[in-house]
């Protein structure tokens, strides 16, 4: 055995001894306590107020009703304000895991009132209330939003009482646990310290109205499509934007699922798979859309269905232009003010 080979054996031996030692230490109570203290040190630092000079776009839910991801949710932070576009099931957990500044949540803007866009609202309301939100959470959305919010407020009335009784009115001011609904129309819906949010109509028929939202802040812009087919109104709203985050459906995967459901005699599932391609944008249509609008970057979210393995991801990539960002739960785009840069993490 030569010198390098002997050295290799020694290194492997040392690594094995270290691994066995670590396993032994983590089996003792003292070792567990030490490791736990080290692991949690600093985890609360990330919930400090946002101080980024520009727009931050965080994907808190990249999925749809089909399983595999948290459901639709995008968090946009500008200065000290955080706005959500939709809050689907599971999205609050993504926010919390990634230390998003929920205390600064000003409003949730709903694209439409399908369950996969609204059932996370109670969790977002509770978390932001606990974290110290200073005003009641506003829920902006299309006609019908008041009915949804009235319902949530009623469903959560007992829970609010339990939370206040347990943690006290100093921590949880009762009036901040009650959400306020506001019906919006296309046009500017929020102006907040240099941030402008504009609602525009999209086509998700038979769900009407349904909106997308454009955010403009310090020379940067992002457009969130909500659920829609490729449509002129979105094209107009997205023209020249830095980032377009668009709903995406893989017709190839959905058609294959439909055929498999028919083959198996699963007629209910087959009907659903036959219906859904009519009201979502197909992956192959998004490259030409990005080209026509001249957006700097195209990202896709609200996958129908969410890719769950390498094959599904490759099928999406095959139908989308090079450079498209296939988001995941936790993907973040940072757009520094007055710049052309876009920094993407968590893909
Ligand atoms: Zn949806
Ligand atoms: Zn929908």
Structural class: alpha/beta
Helix content: 25-40%
Rough outline: globular
CATH-assigned fold name: Metallo-beta-lactamase, Chain A
- The H-and-E topology, N to C, reads as HHEEEHEHHEHHEEEEEHEHHHEHEEE
CATH superfamily: Ribonuclease Z/Hydroxyacylglutathione hydrolase-like
Give the biggest sheet: 8 strands, mixed
- The N- to C-terminal Cα distance equals 44 Å
Q: How much of the sequence is in beta strands?
A: 15-25%
Number of helices: 12
* Domains (count): 1
So, CATH architecture? 4-Layer Sandwich
Total number of strands: 15
Which CATH class? Answer: Alpha Beta
What strand line-up does the widest sheet have?
6-5-4-3-2-1-14-15
Ligand species: zinc ion
Mean pLDDT rating:
95
Provide a descriptive summary of the structure in words.
This protein is α/β, with parallel strands linked by helices and 347 residues long. It is 37% helix and 24% strand. It has helices at 3-26, 29-40, 91-97, 115-118, 121-131, 145-155, 157-167, 232-238, 251-263, 267-275, 283-293, 310-319; strands at 54-61, 73-78, 81-85, 105-109, 138-141, 180-183, 187-192, 195-201, 211-217, 220-224, 243-249, 297-304, 325-326, 332-336, 343-345. Helix 9 (251-263) packs antiparallel against helix 10 (267-275). It binds zinc ion (2 copies). The site of one zinc ion has 7 residues, from helix 4.
